[in-house]
Structures are given as structure tokens and as C-alpha cells.
Design the sequence.
């Protein structure tokens, strides 16, 4: 089925632009645990998955950027002028943002063509936009012979999103899509950008994603509000502890000392982040000790905090987690990504996956009148070139 889509993408490229292109596979990502910790300089535990965007990219001599989205059946074209402006549409901006950032880093590309499509559900919290940014960057680096490490690419893609698209996201999504490793979760220290590959293949457990179908854009929304609440907390704690730079540096005791000076909402936001960061470290220990049940418990704990303290969940996400709790063999479940919609990530015993799916479908429909899409997923490698046309 994927082969058909890839053939369609390559065919479309050849029809429109000729045959000089590379084909890039750029995966979506899951995050096992560690939500809203990345922009607080904390730890996250994401992984690239077997759902991806495929991009055929080639340079052209016409000084234009010509883009085609196969599955949205849309195109966008713009002159590669010195002053790239927002397209006024959603997806082209992720690509234009990357070009804009590359320039700011002193890397100028000539015009290029890109045809892409994929099976990462859009707006479902699986980072289709990070995949698109990373994929374009990877392809352009290959075509222009730029030597940029995947980590540097993640930083550039994150900045594209911060500065051009206008979402103050952290680095997790771009990092995971670009650096993924088959059968491994990536424990990333978002301060030092050092990461460890943590083996995550247990034949007895599957990662299952349940999609609420609820879609909320992150831009200009509550996401940026949460960030500023964390910064607010830090600025007050810094008055006593000037060495504190981010919530990563704050313990629960230090936070407690400032309870009276902090707005109660800011207090609970900070409390969540500090606890969540510790949960990532503890959950990684659980994995090393092969204690997958303890890992699953921490996923439930993470959701509880996201629901009640960070308040980025929604009733559909909470419902999916409640349903999971009722199913024997679903050992962990939580909302994933920025929040307010998208998917839950569930750790389900392999022999319980089919009953889990049946129960979730049925109960979700009963309670909401809507259907949920359920995706079984495996952990895959990060962004890479999968084909080069012969004459390149
Ligand atoms: C979004 C952002 C990430 C991260 C998560 C929450 O996915 O893009 O940087 O902050 O939300 O953990």
C-alpha cells in the first residue's frame, strides 16, 4: 500500500519536473513519556514511528520553489526571492520556514521542487509538520552537499517553526523524527542535547495509538500560554535562586518554598513539569530493569498530571485513558504531544490488542457518538534517503 503512494509521489514528480530527485522518508513520532518538559530544558523519551511522509525533492534552474502535496491535492509555488513571506496557508509555511532558516545560517539553495505525501495523520499529535520540515531539510542538504548533522537539522527545523510559523515549540518532535532508531526510544536531555538510545522492543507489548479525532492548532493558543507560565514561575524562583535557568533546575522543595509568591495556577503548572521530568528519569530506570508494568504506571501518572495540573487534556482524551484503564492488558495510557486533542499512546500486551481495540471502538462510540481511529505502530529509523534517481 505504501509502495503505491511512493510510486505515485515519484510519478507525479517525473511528470511535472523530470527525473533528477532524491526520495526522502521522514517519520512521525510518538513520545513515550515526558510531556511539556522539552522547553523547560528537561528530559523526553520519544521515538520515530513507521508512519511517515515521503518527499521527492530535486533542484531546479528556474529560481522558484514549487511544491505539491499529493494527498491534499494542493500545490504552491513561489519565487525564491530574498524575502520569503508566509503563504497564508498551513503546510507550505513549514517548508518556507526551513528555507528561511537555512538562509539565516548562511546556506542558500537554488530553486527546488518537492512532491510529497504520507500516512502520518495530520493534527493528530504525531508531528506530521516536524516530519515535513526535517524531510525537506534532509533532502536539500543532500542535494546541495551540505554537511549538517541530524541534531543540527532538528535545531534548524525547530527555529523554522518558532520564527516563521510562529509556534514556540520545543525540540522534541524535530529531534525524534530526524534521529530515530529502530526498536529504540531516545532519552534526550533537552539542555545539553545529549541523547541515549534506550532499547524498546518487547515482543509482549505493542504501542497502540487512539485518535480522538479532535483537532486543535497549537499556534497562538494555550501552548504558548503554558510556556509563559513556566517562565513566570522561573522568574520568581530566580529571585531566591539566581542560578536557576529553567524549571529543570528547580526541585519540588524549592517550588514549595515559593508557594505564597506564586499564582496558584503557575504553581501547579511548575509542579507538573518538575514531577514529569522526574517521571522520565524513573521510567527510563524501569525500562533498564525490564519493569514494563512500572513504566506503564508512570504513563498513567503523566496523564493525571497533564489533565489536572497542566490542564492540556480534553474530555475525549480523558475518556480514552479511562477506557484503557478498564481493559486488562493495557498497562499504560496517556495523552501525547501538546494536548487539547490528537491521540493517546497506550502500551498494550500483545495478546490483548484485539480486545483492546474492540472495547475502545465500542465505548468511545457509545460515549461520544464518534469513531476513533486506532493505529498499531512500531518504532522505526529517523529521516533518511531511501532512493536516488539513477542520473543524479
Ligand atoms: C508539541 C511540541 C513539542 C513538545 C510537546 C509537548 O508536540 O512541538 O516541542 O513541547 O508539544 O511535550
Sequence:
Amino acid at each position: 500500500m505504501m509502495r503505491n503512494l511512493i510510486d505515485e509521489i515519484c510519478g507525479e514528480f517525473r511528470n511535472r519536473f523530470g527525473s533528477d530527485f532524491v526520495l526522502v522518508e521522514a517519520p512521525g513520532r510518538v513520545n513515550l513519556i515526558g510531556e511539556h518538559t522539552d522547553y523547560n530544558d528537561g528530559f523526553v523519551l520519544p521515538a520515530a514511528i513507521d508512519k511517515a511522509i515521503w518527499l521527492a525533492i530535486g533542484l531546479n534552474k528556474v529560481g522558484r520553489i514549487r511544491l505539491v502535496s499529493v494527498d491534499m491535492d494542493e500545490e504552491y509555488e513561489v519565487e525564491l526571492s530574498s524575502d520569503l513571506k508566509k503563504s497564508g496557508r498551513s503546510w507550505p509555511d513549514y517548508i518556507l520556514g526551513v528555507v528561511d532558516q537555512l538562509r539565516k545560517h548562511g546556506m542558500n539553495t537554488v530553486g527546488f521542487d518537492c512532491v510529497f505525501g504520507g500516512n502520518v495523520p495530520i493534527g493528530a499529535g504525531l508531528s506530521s509538520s516536524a516530519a515535513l520540515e526535517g524531510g525537506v531539510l534532509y533532502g536539500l542538504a543532500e542535494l546541495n552537499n551540505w554537511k549538517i548533522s541530524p541534531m543540527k537539522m532538528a535545531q534548524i527545523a525547530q527555529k523554522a517553526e518558532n520564527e516563521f510559523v510562529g509556534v514556540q515549540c520545543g525540540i522534541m518532535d524535530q529531534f525524534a523524527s530526524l534521529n530515530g532508531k529502530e526498536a529504540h526510544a531516545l532519552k534526550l536531555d533537552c539542555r545539553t542535547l545529549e541523547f541515549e538510545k534506550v532499547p524498546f522492543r518487547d515482543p509482549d507489548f505493542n504501542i497502540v495509538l487512539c485518535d480522538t479525532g479532535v483537532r486543535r492548532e497549537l499556534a497562538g493558543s494555550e501552548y504558548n500560554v503554558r510556556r509563559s507560565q513556566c517562565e513566570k514561575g522561573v522568574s520568581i524562583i530566580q529571585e531566591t535562586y539566581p542560578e536557576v535557568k529553567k524549571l529543570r533546575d528547580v526541585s519540588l522543595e524549592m517550588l514549595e518554598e515559593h508557594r505564597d509568591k506564586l499564582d496558584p495556577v503557575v504553581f501547579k503548572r511548575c509542579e507538573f513539569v518538575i514531577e514529569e521530568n522526574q517521571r522520565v528519569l524513573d521510567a527510563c530506570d524501569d525500562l533498564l530493569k525490564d519493569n514494563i508494568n512500572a513504566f506503564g504506571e508512570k504513563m498513567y501518572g503523566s496523564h493525571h498530571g497533564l489533565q489536572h495540573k497542566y490542564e492540556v487534556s480534553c474530555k475525549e482524551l480523558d475518556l480514552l485513558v479511562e477506557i484503557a484503564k478498564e481493559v486488562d492488558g493495557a498497562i499504560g495510557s496517556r495523552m501525547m504531544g501538546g494536548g487539547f486533542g490528537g491521540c493517546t499512546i497506550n502500551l498494550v500486551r500483545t495478546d490483548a490488542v484485539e480486545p483492546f481495540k474492540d472495547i475502545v471502538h465500542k465505548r468511545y462510540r457509545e460515549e461520544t457518538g464518534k469513531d476513533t481511529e486506532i493505529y498499531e505502530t512500531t518504532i522505526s529509523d529517523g529521516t533518511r534517503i531511501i532512493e536516488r534517481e539513477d542520473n543524479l
User: Anything to note?
Assistant: The pocket of alpha-D-galactopyranose is lined by residues 35-36, 38-39, 169-170, 172-173, 337-338 (CB under 6 Å). The two ends are 27 Å apart (CA to CA). The longest strand covers residues 46-59.
